[in-house]
Amino acid sequence: MDEQLDIKSRNASRLLAGAEMTETFTSIPVISLAPLFGGDTDAKQAVADEIRDACMQVGFFQITDHGVDMEVQAGAFAAAKRFFALPEAEKRKVSVKNSPLLRGYGGLLEENTDPDNDGDLHEHFDLALDLGPEDPDTLAGTYGCGPNQWPDLPDFRPPVMAYHREMVALSARLFRGFALSLDLPEDFFDPHITRPIAELRLAHYPPQTPVYDPEKIMGIGAHSDYDVFTVVATGPVPALEVQNAADDWIAVPPMPEGFVVNVGDLLQRWTNDLYRSTFHRVVNRTGLERYSLPFFASTNPLWELGVLDNCKSPERPARYAPISAAEYIGTLMRESYGL
Length: 339
Known about the structure:
Belongs to the iron/ascorbate-dependent oxidoreductase family. Residues 196-299 form the Fe2OG dioxygenase domain. This protein is α+β, with helices and mostly antiparallel strands. Helix content is 29%, strand content 18%. The protein has a single domain, classed as Jelly Rolls (Sandwich), CATH 2.60.120.330.
């Protein structure tokens, strides 16, 4: 028992020491996930250490060697372009406002992530695990559990759900990397991501034009994400920017074969603000149409987790009470639509 307590103390000291080491970043780190797919324990921990440093210093990193089938991703991008090319009236038939889970289509300026702005200059289609109306979790009315809405568009649903499955698998691998980064057992999250809130967004950003005041209307206003972490396929058009401690906006360069990963609010809560749910925004100044595929990874809806033991101390007590993903994400999503 004494040895276990000593290990716990060393782990807490290592994480808490990083709270005093935050520096202003000027670029986004790139991390290869290849060791997370192997059996070399030391190599896995080395990747986890990179993840920890990125989460504490930046809140964002880009990943390579992730195992996602790029052909499946291309199919999802193609499906997104076909959907957004539909007449507005067709897209409106699957409006998010028809869904208590806020799944389906959201139009230009319909969502507003930054309360100081006048709306977000993008349209999107949201989906998640597609549970039937008779599923027990659907019947219970739990946020995150239920059916998707689907447009009347041939060959749309299969490629989109195929990509969703790829992202669920990748997020499970990343959960293991995050666990190791927090000095937790590698499988710590496994029992709590069996039926997760796993929301995929297909997003379309028209170019920023003089018609829209760039100070009040942009692709997405400055915000943090509500989930545990987000995995984004940005596409080739640059627009994503991350805010550093000096309030400078740092551009994230597109990485066609990689992904951007960022810490969400729930992970920041669990780590007692050691991991940073960093503000970011999207401003499409290129004159080109931009498409992206953000995937919002969370846990099973009703699992409650408070601040992790090794992320608090008498000098740094817990700053957050336990809360479930369903309560936290559901509340903020409804607020973003003014519901």
